[in-house]
Amino acid sequence: MDTAEKRVHAFVRVKPTADFAQDVIKFGRDNKSIDIYIKKDAKKGVVNNRRTDWSFRLDGVLHNASQDLAYETVAEKLVSEALNGYNGTIMCYGQTGAGKTYTMTGATADYKHRGIIPRAIQQVLKATTRCVDRFITVRVSYLEIYNETLFDLLSTMTSSRTGDAQMAVVDCPQGVYVKGLSIHTVSHEEDALNLLFEGETNRVIAEHALNKNSSRSHCIFTIYIESRFRVFSDVKHVTSKINLIDLAGSERLSKTGSEGQVLKEATYINKSLSFLEQIVIALGDPKRDHIPFRQSKLTHVLKDSLGGNCNTVLVANICGEAVHVEETLSSLRFATRMKWITTEPVINETCDAEWMVKTLEKEIVFLKRELAMHDSLVNRSLVTYDPLTEIQIADIKSQVQKYLEGSIDEIDIVNIRQVQEVFKQFKLLVSQQEQEVEARLRSKYALIDKNDFAAVAAAQKAGLVDVDGLVVGEMDGQDSGTEAAPFSSKHGEKKTKPRKTKEQGTKEGIGTSLSGKELDALLQSKSQVMNSTKDLDAKEGARNQDAANVDAQPSQAAPVRDSQKPSSPPPKPVAFEQFKKECGSEINRIFKENKSILLARKKRSSTVEQRLNLIKHEMEGIKEALGAQRQERWQQGEYVDEKGQIIIDEEEFLLIMKLKDLKKEYRSDYAELQDLKAEIQYCQHLVDQCRNKLVSEFEIWYNESFLIPKDVQDTLKPGGNIRPGMIPINRVMCLEKDAQDRFERMQKETLPACPDSVSFYNAKMKADQKHAYARTMSSLEQMRKKPGLLTAATKNKPLWFLHIS
């Protein structure tokens, strides 16, 4: 990409309003500039130097622009480049209520008003179906940053709003990613839109003076794209991601009138946006060496999107009213600063490691041939670049020893491998000498750890060392050969301090030997200390065990008390065993049979793999033997018959025939292994299918048997309105009657004119189904807590409204 493509693109989108201040905000004829004019305040007197006009030039101004035009201008090119391997980021910034969420997500009730995210999903997944030369895998994730806490909007536990302690922003060589964030694979537009709408319902919103549905968090919807070429599918692949960011709006508290929790949220929002602006200013300054990305979770997550390997586009959403002119100026200044940032997008191409190894091996062979040609031109035909043989290593070792003894003055070296081997031999000789010195010192001295206070005290008591740790006394009636020597200092001239080794750690030698009694005293004192430590550990362990037993007693008694309750359902593990013996016996039998077949196939596959490895190893041995035979024949001279064909001996002929048989056997076993792998994959699919079926049927049986209220169970009995098992309780997905009718009318009116909207409306319908089910189950739970309310409420009404599926 050229230099113009590397900078961040910034666009302005003006929120449509009836009170647009035409005398304050004016647009250029090319739709790329915007001017702001403010009248001087007469109340501040004649001398008033306050600035009254500003001019900003950006990449485009979107005023009264449709969603189609906004997407074509802002996102279409970026998404197309992402399909070719470039990372992309689109970010909406502006004050609260300026239309950021509308620009990014759009109106979920109307297909024409959908935003950038649904349109980007449609463009990416349409491209995957049309592409014939690549396999494209698409995955999505949805991250929320609320009050400086990370939340996964596509996680089932998000509704608790407790946050995931395991989620964290992590830096790696490939970029920044969020640890613990769930990523979902999608193959159809409807699947991706289902996830988008599900995440939207989990977002935190609130109401204040400027916006009835104000987003209280920053949200990042990410599309991950992985492309593998059909020709080189195992060699290299291209990866990219598109970050679609809906930032929370900056708020002026004097206008929003926020209080309580909304005020706290506004504080976090303004703080994170302030850190984001500091990052933008720092990136635009070429003299800055350090960029403080870790100031907030938002700036850390956007590290790659700002000034990194990414195509970045900013959409500054502003309001057209004169009352919001200060916030408009702030958003336009931010957009101008973003244009100062330059990025370096590159195609994210990854090569397969095995293919790279093979390529490098070929390169090594080629370079060796080049070296051999060079050596032959300079008459160095005896130089070899292969690994050294045992004879050559022994010769180098002999030369090193002679060099150290002074017999020779130089060592013959002709290549780098010999240089490395010379240094290796020097290192081995030094290590051997150190070991010999240490062994001699150990045979003469006893080593005491200076941190072992018990052993030092015993040595002082025996009179071997004084209070300062200096060695005293004599050995076998002879002078110790030195004056007093402290533990941590060097010894005298006649005594050498033993060298520290890895095994000794902080041990140091005492410059004297110990008699048998003294050594026994030291060992006895040390063993006493160790025994006393073990006794303390044993007592501590006993106390911990007693405490654990005391804690375990109430927990063991709890199930007994629970079991006395006749109305409480049994634990699911117990009920599951009962289900497998009764209602689920047939499914359990099929599951066990499939599992046994799968295990047998895996065992057979392992046996074939072992046999293949043995055959491969034997083939390599035969190839080496044939190579040796051919080398020997070449050295002794080859025999040729009348036709000019080389005559080989019987042994070489037998090796060739055996190698041929082994190759045939290898191909046969390899084909069998491939068939077994296909069978294993199919059997694994059957086992998983049976397992899921078993679990789902158990959930239906458990709910119908123990969790449905008594009044509903009477209805489920034979002769009732609903048969047991016909409508599982955890599979309820029905719309309310008016919503269903509305959806059917919409299908008749909209779908014929716009067939591409099928996936959008199907995903919207499923999202509404989930919400309806959640509301109904919440109402049922409240009714169940009040005795008699459920019976009274359902006495004269059909059970379809209970959403029992």
UniProtKB/TrEMBL annotation:
Q: Cite the residue spans of the region called Disordered.
A: 477-517, 531-575
**DNA damage listed as a keyword:** no
In this chain the Kinesin motor domain maps to 7-341
List the PROSITE patterns.
Answer: KINESIN_MOTOR_1, KINESIN_MOTOR_2
Sites binding ATP sit at G94, Q95, T96, G97, A98, G99, K100, T101
Entry keywords, A to Z: ATP-binding, Coiled coil, Cytoplasm, Cytoskeleton, Microtubule, Motor protein, Nucleotide-binding, Phosphoprotein
This chain's protein is named Kinesin-like protein
Q: Which organism is it from?
A: Apteryx mantelli
